[in-house]
From TrEMBL, chain A:
PurM-like C-terminal domain residues: 452-600, 845-983
Keywords: ATP-binding, Cytoplasm, Ligase, Magnesium, Metal-binding, Nucleotide-binding, Purine biosynthesis
Name of the protein in its database record: Phosphoribosylformylglycinamidine synthase subunit PurL
Pathway in which this enzyme or protein is active: Purine metabolism; IMP biosynthesis via de novo pathway; 5-amino-1-(5-phospho-D-ribosyl)imidazole from N(2)-formyl-N(1)-(5-phospho-D-ribosyl)glycinamide: step 1/2
Catalytic activity: N(2)-formyl-N(1)-(5-phospho-beta-D-ribosyl)glycinamide + L-glutamine + ATP + H2O = 2-formamido-N(1)-(5-O-phospho-beta-D-ribosyl)acetamidine + L-glutamate + ADP + phosphate + H(+)
Binding positions for Mg(2+) 2 per the UniProt entry: D353, D516
Family matches, as InterPro entries: PRibForGlyAmidine_synth_PurL, PurL_linker, PurM-like_C_dom, PurM-like_C_sf, PurM-like_N, PurM-like_N_sf, PurS-like_sf
Gene name of the record: purL
Cell compartment(s), UniProt: Cytoplasm
Residues at which ATP binds: K327, D757, G802
Domain of life: Bacteria
Amino acid sequence: MSDTNPNTAQATHTIQLTLKAGQHDGDGQRVAEAAARHLGLATGRVRSAALYTVRYPLSETQLRDFATRCLADPVLHDVRLNELTGAAEFATYILVARRPGVTDDEGTSAQNALADLLNEPLDVHTQHIFSKKLYLLENDLPETDLRRIAEELLGNKLINWLEVGRVADGIRDYTPRPGGGAEAITEVVSLTGLSGAELLQLSKENIYALNLEEMRAVRDYFAAVETQEERKSAGLPADPTDCELEIIAQTWSEHCKHKEFAAVINYKDTETGEEKQIDSLFKTYIKNATSEVDRQLRANGNDWLIKVFSDNAGAVRINPDSLFVWKVETHNSPSAIDPYGGAITGILGNNRDPLATGIGGARLLFNTNVLCFGNPEFDGQLLTGQLHPRRILEGVRKGIEDGGNKSGVPTVNGAIVFDDRYAGKPLVYCGTGAVMPMQFAGLDSWEKKIDAGDRIIMAGGRVGKDGIHGATFSSIELDETAPATAVQIGSPITQKLAMDFLLLAARRGLLKCSTDNGAGGLSSSVGELAGISGGAVVELERVPLKYPGLRPWEIFVSESQERFTLVVEPGKMAEITALGQEMEVELTDIGYFTSDGFLDVRFDGAPVARLNMEFLHEGVPRKILEAEWTKPAAAEPEIPTATDYTETLTQLLGSLNICSRESVIRQYDHEVKGRTIVKPLMGATGQAPQDAAVVRFNFESWEGVAVSNGILPRYGDLDAYDMSAGSFDEAVRQIIAVGGKLPNLTPGDGIFWSVNDNFCVPDSVYDPASNPDGKQKLAKLVRMCEALRDATAAYCIPLTSGKDSMKNDFKADGVKISVPPTVLYSMTAKMEDVRRAVTSDFKQADDVVYLLGETHDELGGSEFYALHGQFGANVPKVDFAKAKALYTLIGQANDQNLIQSCHDLSDGGLAVALAETTFGYGYGAMVELPETGLPLATQLFSESHSRFLATVAPEDVVAFEQLLGERATRLGIVTADGELTVRHAGKTVISANTTALRAAWTNGPVNHLLGVFSNDNLSHSNSL
Amino acid sequence: MVQDSAQGAHKVQLEAQADASGSAGTVRALILTGFGINCEEEFAAAYRLAGADATIVHLNQVLHGQVSIHDFDVLNFPGGFSFGDDLGSGVVLANKLRYRQTSTDGRTLLDDIKQFIADGKFVLGICNGFQVLVKLGLLPNLGGDVTPEVTLTHNASGRYEDRWVTLRVNPASNTPFLKGIDKLEVPVRHGEGRLVIPNDATRAAIEAAGLNCLSYIDANGDGTSEYPHNPNGADLNCAGLTDPTGQVFGLMPHPEAFLAAYNHPDWARRRRQNPGASEEGEGLQIFKNIVAHITQKSASAAPAVQLANQN
């Protein structure tokens, strides 16, 4: 595909931009620094250049005008035309191009500029301009080193074409071949007479990710007399087509069908001897629990729960005019093989869920993200195909930056968890909140209605091979042979255009409904929508492609990004088409809905697939799984008692899981839209970490929403029930800390809560050879779900949507790295008045400091033990009744404005919370720990749940203590001197300057790794 | 293609504006959006809170002649990532305004904007909008021929950053947008905000005319080149520019993101210190200034109408 054909080469021009002498080449400098720092390679000076290959007929003058007026900045750049040359002082080069069909937003932008310059209607959906980067290196590095720099720092060989070599040998260029039609070949796959082993082999080779029983069900469907007759009369071959098997594989994938959450599970507790059968985890623990919560809510006049578990996102009512829509998803597998592409498609894909809930056209309000990585300072040997955790961290961070910032959606909240077991597959959770009017053009906005005859419209980007098999691929463990086509790069600008279009189309009543094209592409989106009307006909030859050579089945299951499937009544086609043209969003009519019970796919009239909808959606065999719980052996360690814990606290503040994430946070725009009231970092210093974000809905009222995340995977090693219960409680108490209130405390108070659960677990299906501890893993999942049910019932907080990711294992070179069973609870709750939000940092000297809640001997799994290389046994447990009583009282205290600051206690316990609350302004605190019978270290570092550190103004102390009673322990006062002093039994046990503590926290490994340092003890030039 | 929830209401509003255009009515602000611009909602909120009418329109509506900028008093370029900013911030949008012909006589939107300014009207660009005005040459426009004279490029840190900064207004600046403001706290949210002035002569001319209207200052109140108080390493520590008339104003930071006191990172402590303080954010003053200026200007230009209204 390289550009050697003389016929096309004639029309090809190359424009090279280099920085003028004296202009700072930041890009080049960063490559040199990164090569030295991460790869130990000395490149000498590195000079960067931007290249644009133009495959469009241009005169010499037009080319020069385009280069100098549109592409070059007259202050910064020198321009070279049609020469690909180095410079005398540089010995080697690296050229980074893109593989065919890979999103090239820079090329698209250049094409827009060319169309404007020429005043020609240059079709921007066909690629004429290809952007590339050229790096010239001073040192004469061998090719292997150049390749390392190219592949590990500059590009990803799955998506980039990388050329390296000596400048003296000539710089090799590469340009992919654009445009073109499909390859109209549909093959037939015979299942008749295949043995079990052969069926499984077929499933593996084609990445169907179906097990033997499922393959047999497919075979039996096609062999049935009824099917045979129908196929004959419809002109289909007797055997299934490639497209049909792909559709079934995608629809039945774990990713889309949640087969393990729907399975029958035989559960055994070896300790108690209890045995039970669970008829679907989802139904038993999630759906039924939420139904019960809804019943209690409605009985109390709280009827704000509008849509749960049945659409792309859950919806709750804010007020009579608007709905809040909330969705959190994961994008783990793609992020493991291409961190940037995986994360950006994760966040953009998750944005499309609330955008395409109900009719579609919600207005996005905010994003959140929670990330789990291996240790970024890992210095061991990587497995084949495994990316370094640091590279995954940096790529994912950049993907979220571009995905959020370029869409104009603030990233208001997040968390990063480090554990070596995430070094194979990272976890990338993306959340999006949105607001939708209750009605669009007189119709209920949250409803999805479709009738036979409605048109199927594909809107947004074009289709390529990118993302083929994403749905099935994410449903299996990763290994070194991960397919390149499973990677996609998102284009936030393409999606922004589609989003602007959708907002308007919905408000004008042009949309009947819409859905997102995510995992499984058209197959999934049309397949699901067709379930509403009872069938669909899709004409694949109409689908616009990025490049030639796609077969019909590939077009149907491709996961090319930024696409929506719209349902439009025939009478509204003209108006919506005109709007699409005006807003430069490509709309393609690709077929229509029917009610005949079949999903019917054609190419140029020839049958490609015709599947019975009932079989497709209901025909997957139920799994029966085994779970067996054995309590892990664990013991409390002996850690020598110290007399001074100042150094311990300092070390904890600088530890990987506690230290500041400021370098990450500041690269996300957390306040675009101007509505963010509580940001991730607050205070005069901008360095006080907060518990939950608070965002107001609009500029006309002070109503808003609090957003939090609970995730505590390490406790799962002691007991998955307590881990899940603790995670749920963590998210609840974060919202209580910022001034939120529990739901349903008063009749008809309308305080909505909307929660998403996201389970990410390792392969939990028992297999004596490949997964011998599968029963224990599944038992952990069961226990996590039991805790979820109990928490939901205790707090009366409903789940509204969720997701499970079941195969988070990475296998290579005979080694398997499995994530610890992990659950994230992403919570949102209505704030009646955001002006009454409470932030975590101390507000004024002489305010009285209280510990709220009970501390227990619960150092198991704590950061304090981790610091000593121990794990312990006493995992923190949640007492839901006590927690609810405390949270209710805190809500009442906030009603009376009694609380000046409130910080929830989590990693590192009371000591870390005390330090963090001083970070906002430089206050100190004088604290005396009570005699409770607990050892000092336990009081300081236990991570018992449902606790807060709060301050109260001196004049409010009486009222506060009367209200909270024994639930509040008076610890001391806020001081102006910037010294944190903690005393116990008449002795000073912590004595530290809070600026020094903040520096320890700020200069922790995360900021250090990403190159941001505290100003307090480093000169400014270092950070520039 | 008016981008607001109440589409119908806005159509009515547009018609109402056309009717009211001859009277001493409300100040009319036009806010452009589309193609990756993403701060239009808070921009419109700022004008509404300042007492003006704010109309958000898609750029294509203006390019295709459905909306005329001349029906408005102040033209606004919000922040965002126009066309993804892939060729350099604001470049593609500036290019479109300069070259895309909006009618058969070869007229471009830039021609209209020049006319708009010549008519004594106002142009405001924030962040990406500022970048557009600079890349177009509307700022600083020392030569008066709308040719790029300076540029905005990658921050010295090499990173996009969201952080709050403090700005000081240049007392020599003549722009009505900044009248009466001495200092201002605002968030910056950009990766390409470093002002580069290519030569000493241009630098001297900008300073002599007081066009460098805003500078980043440190804790002592002094202009600074030091990170993070100066978040991008801008020449002259400069955060914003005007043209010599003061009618065209652009800045990297986001005053429209500080409309309420509760946007400030330290709001909770400050309100504890001073519970009676205004609930308005400091950023709103810029919008109140220009609305007041235009109102006053039209009042003095048409005293008869004003009197008639008061009666």
